[in-house]
Structures are given as C-alpha cells and as structure tokens.
C-alpha cells in the first residue's frame, strides 16, 4: 500500500517539476529577447560610436567563440575576419589554432626493472575545435600539458630500461596515440611526441660502460682465437703438402732467403743444407 502511494505521489510530482522548468525556460527566453532588443536600441542610439565596440577582428589563425547572455551562440566559432557582437550581453574568447610546442620538464621515472631514470620530451599540439576547447574544459592548454607529464611517467614506468633506450620511436608513437585519444574531448589534436633525452645515474653509466668494455674484450679474444685456429689449420695443410714433396721445402727455403735479402738490413744468413741436418738426426736416432 505504501509503495502504491509513493508511486502515485511521484507521478503527481514529475509533471509539476517539468512544468516549472518549462516556465523558467520561457521566462529566460523572454528576458533574453528583451535584453537583446535593448542592446540593439543602445547600438542604434550611440551610432556611429557603437560600431567601434560592436565590430571585432580576428586573424587568420584565430577563431572567436561568442557567448550571449552566458549561452554559447549558435553557428560555431567566428572568423577569420570581422564579426559582430552586441554590447553588454555578448562576450567572446579568442582561440589560437597554431601548433604549440610544450617542453615536458624532466620526469624522474622508476622503470619496470627498478632503475631510476630522468626522461624529458617535446609535445606538439594544436586546437582543432575552438568551441569545444572553450566550452568543455577550463584551460585546455594547461590540462594537455599536465596530461603529457602524467602519460610520460606512466609509459616509461611500464617498460624496462633496454626498451626505453632502444625503442624511443615506438614509445613516442604510443604516447602520441594515448594523448590524442584523451584530448579529443577537449578539442585538442596532438600531432607529435618526441623523447628528447634519457639520463641515467652516474653509477649506472659507469657499470654499463664497464660491461660494454668487457663484452668488447671478450669478442676480441674470441676473434683472435678463431684466427689462430684457422692459421694452425692452414699451416697443417701446408706442412702436409711440403711433406709430400721434398723439393717444395727447398723452394720455400729459397723463397724465405729471397724475402730476407730484399730488405735493406744487417741480417746475415748462412745457408745450411737440409740433408745434413737429416743425416745428424738419423745418426742420433740410431745411437
């Protein structure tokens, strides 16, 4: 029974509220028309001095958002060029449509692998809808800049250090997409985001430099070992060829003498027959 009474009372109450709102809107419209008429009368009476107040000019890269009695004037933003406003009841705001540059201050970020780094970036953005940028947010530029700082910290905090150092373009693209989606409701278009610098702590820089130097030394040792291995294989193959032909050893011996004699030095070479050495070696083995 109680619920039925409540429903009945609500049904009687809602039409009352609706009628009150309609009456208030009609009264405000009537009052607005009266004020507009009085403003036109004031313009006509003070002619031509009122023209200096009523006509305004905005530049090619600017737009004017007009409010009449606190309400947004239909037709969207005005400009570029000359537009007309009524004194006392019209107010307007200028909006710059040029691309602006915001240098994000260095942000101390803790990366995914628990390394503290300082990151700064540059954000390029512009106003693509002047009406929304004035009506939907108090200060579109300040809000975009604060959001850029927060997005930079959040993006860097979800990535390890090696990705931050090696994938700057990917991170910049992700930040640009995230900022553009968030600022669409504010009439802002984020055109580009660039990461300027990633500063590491001094101790970490020294540790990374020592690690890189050790890695280079290890690679150099491996390369040198591979070269010695290839050289030893080549020498073994050469010894096998020389062992098959005794004359090849004599030719190699003569070639070495020719190389030594071609240089201007004080080296004295005494040729010793290989057969003589072979005789002494066999005699020692027999004994």
UniProtKB/TrEMBL annotation:
Pfam family membership, one: Band_7
Top-level taxon of the source organism: Eukaryota
Cellular localisation: Membrane
Domain Band residue range list: 53-212
InterPro entries assigned: Band-7_stomatin-like, Band_7, Band_7/SPFH_dom_sf, Band_7/stomatin-like_CS, Stomatin_HflK_fam
Cellular compartments per GO CC: plasma membrane
PROSITE patterns: BAND_7
Keywords tagged on the record: Membrane, Transmembrane, Transmembrane helix
Gene3D superfamilies assigned to the protein according to its UniProt record, in alphabetical order: 6.10.250.2090, Band 7 domain
Transmembrane segments: 34-59
Coiled coil regions, renumbered to chain: none
Family: Belongs to the band 7/mec-2 family.
Protein name: Band 7 domain-containing protein
